[in-house]
Amino acid sequence: MDLTGASAIVTGGASGLGEATARRLAAGGTSVVIADRNEERGRAVAAEIGGIFVAADVTQEEQVQAAVDAAVAVAPLRALVSCAGTGMGARTVARDGTPHALAAFEFIVRLNLIGTFNAVRLAAAAMASVEPQADGERGAIVCTASVAAFDGQIGQAAYGASKAGVVGLTLPVARDLSAIGVRVNTIAPGTMDTALFAAAPQAVKDTLGAQVLFPKRMGVPDEFASLAYELLTNSYLNAEVIRLDGGIRFQPK
Q1: Which of 4, 49, 204, 220 has the most CB atoms within 10 Å of its CB?
Q2: CATH code (residue 61)
Q3: Is residue 197 part of a domain?
Q4: Which of 53, 159, 224, 250 is catalytic?
């Protein structure tokens, strides 16, 4: 699919995987709308790439719709990359016998899973009305899961469940959206060197990298962006979940 002259939305585009993807899309001639809660950083990145920033919490329908409207106003919306999300660590029952906080579990699932679906459904509705390209293709969507969806570690009940949900929605949503010519794929990253690890000592990063089969390092956001761009533009990639992890398989802890 040709994204030149089209618009794209990147949720969580103010930093990390989302920022790298927004930059890759802009470099390819796509008008990018960054939807993020971090207004200061989001506006800065948008200015650097010639894009638009919309303050948006992906769990809020009207805020995501505002991002969709902003994209449609610029150019036909043909791409969404959903990167907004976060993680947390808590055992189902702590060592002192305290049960996992239900509100914390609900927060992670709402942000990572429901927020993803919210962005997908609203962006896809806008894509349905754009002029089709070859084979009737109108758009493409990339969601972000995690290897925790498959190899969830101790303390990752909420995070693993939320990302497993993203994996689980990939095929049925791809089937749903095939009727309007929109493809859906998901990337499941492993350990990625993002802002989450900015303050981590190099020894910690080296330890994480040593668990990777090859290359023996953490992944970098540009590698995610490269794969996301391929998933958006390669019209025969559909309904796939691709691990981007260097072959790592998480151990229990």
Answers
A1: 49
A2: 3.40.50.720
A3: yes
A4: 159
Catalytic (active site) residue 159: yes
The single-letter DSSP state of residue 210 is H
Using DSSP's 3-state secondary structure scheme, residue 147 falls into coil
97: left (phi over 0), alpha (psi -120 to 50) or beta: left
Query: Of the candidates 165, 149, 73, 184, which has an alpha carbon nearest to the alpha carbon of residue 110?
Result: 165
User: How many domains does the chain contain in total?
Assistant: 1
Taking the CA atoms of 45, 5, 115 and 82 in sequence, report the sign of the dihedral they define.
negative
Fill in the DSSP letter of residue 28: T
How many angstroms separate the CA atoms of 244 and 48, rounded? 27
CB 228 within 8 A of CB 142: yes
Q: Residue 59 in contact with residue 110, Cβ under 8 Å?
A: yes
Q: Give the closest residue to 87 by CA, choosing from 8, 189, 179.
A: 189
Residue 152 lies in a domain: yes
Residue 100 DSSP symbol: P
Cα(144)–Cα(187) distance, integer angstroms:
5
Residues of the domain holding 50 = 7-244
The pLDDT tens digits of the residues spanning 20-53 come to: 999 999 999 999 999 999 999 999 999 999 999 9
The one-letter amino acid code at 116 reads T
Residue 198 has pLDDT above 70, yes or no: no
Q: With respect to residue 34, please indicate whether it lies within any of the assigned structural domains.
A: yes
Is 17 within 8 Å of 225 (Cβ atoms)?
A: yes
**pLDDT value at residue 207:** 82
Residue 130 lies in a domain: yes
- In this structure, what token pair is assigned to residue 27? 């470099």
| Tokens (6 digits) for 28 | 């390819």
Q: Is the whole-model pTM more than 0.85?
A: yes
